[in-house]
Amino acid sequence: MKKILIANRGEIALRVMRACKEMGIKTVAVYSEADANALHTRYADEAVCIGPPPSNQSYLLGHKIIEVAKLTGADGIHPGYGFLSENAEFSRMVKQAGIIFIGPSAESMETMGSKIGAKQAVRNFGVPLVPGIDEAITDVNEAKKIASSIGYPVLIKASAGGGGKGMRVVNAEHEFEEQIKMAQNEAKSSFGDDAVFIEKYVAAPRHIEFQIMADNHGNVVHLFERECSIQRRHQKLVEEAPSSVLTPQMREEMGKAAVNAAKACNYSGAGTIEFLLDEKLNFYFLEMNTRLQVEHPVTEMITGIDLVKEQINVARGHKLSFTQEDLKITGHSIELRICAEDPANNFLPDIGKLTTYKIPQGYGVRVDDAYEQGMEIPIQYDPMIAKLIVYAATREEAMEKMIQAVDDYHISGIETTLSFGKFVMRHEAFRSGNFDTKFIDTYFKPEMLNEPLDEDEELVAALAAEAFWSKETAVSATTNSNKSFSAWRLNRRQ
Ligand code: MV4
Q: Pocket of ligand 1, candidates 114, 146, 156, 167: which has the most ligand atoms within 8 Å of its Cβ, to mutate?
């Protein structure tokens, strides 16, 4: 493979391009009109506009992307995450065009894309499942009997659902029949597939996922776990590796189950097996993601493996460059997703112009981003603007490093989740490792973001406020004057 088209944008496009450049592989960027000046467009060796800003008129147009790959002579396509990264039809089209799709086969994607299909595939491979039914419900009375046998509350899930969509908790038998019918209707209208199944509801689970790498020579390894329980409405905000609750024995057991789940679908490339961990530390298979994930850097930091380079080498037919025995956890890594969202305003998107954008630096500080000072955050795409990743010898040091890196990250012009990251790092529940997927609902309130200012900060805030208000007064008194007063001059006692 001598030239790769990156069918994505933002930080992941740059991330993949950097790996390509280090490998001496040429890169092709595709971009929408909204990304004409984007960094990934400038960083690639070649860049081709594929349409107007809406994703369904640009980054989701598989046939157009393949056409650009042919025109530029790209012999590989890397889909990144999101967009077409788990689209089996696209990976087939790429293969039919004689181009290498850097990812798993269409068959693996399809097996794991259906929650019922994924459970049926892994259940005979020693992968523990949540007690429930692994078939689409056709007979409500039969399902009701099984729900009673596993015990309420139960969870109704849409097989084609994902990210929490299409889930309903049923607390008692008398609700069951109506909830099943509503779940089937909702699944039909949302996903075009009314297949639903039930599972025992695992209250307040932790979300632990295992990174998998598989080559086309029968080698399948896990690269340990990531803790992803700090989520808001199924959107991860803070991830770390390793988890603070896994014992070496649990890690070995879950790692084996993850490898077996990958083998169950003849997996190739980078993938992630998601587990639920209940309060008794029992783990259950949740689903498999057949793509490189946003949070892959924390795994890279504790293993020293460049996952994108491994993906490319697997796609070009190489064996994995390491065995399971070669892999060790060294240190601890934490990632904070920096999103253009206002945590003080229910995390609502807050896009705009980056009037200030200065990233932190230093030993063990990594920023995967895609913006420069002065750039506008386009409204059409995901509000994540960067990932702040820190690495240190211990979890305690990594938390302190994250706090310092957040303080050294200067963004103005938009609100971001930086302050939320600091709130998490300083919270006792997180610091002690005693948290689950309900952390934000349980502990976070917007007023907690206004950390008390220290004395100097108080003074500066007071001076700035006086400068502002006295300027207001001065301007109203000298509306005809076109003199510009510096804030300090305005600040002089009148
Ligand atoms: C569950 C569950 C409790 N019990 N399944 C959420 C999204 C989808 N990936 C599966 N999810 C869940 N499935 C059973 N049987 C709780 C969740 C869940 C969750 C899981 C992982 C991370 C965050 C979550 C937030 C809410 C609910």
A: 167
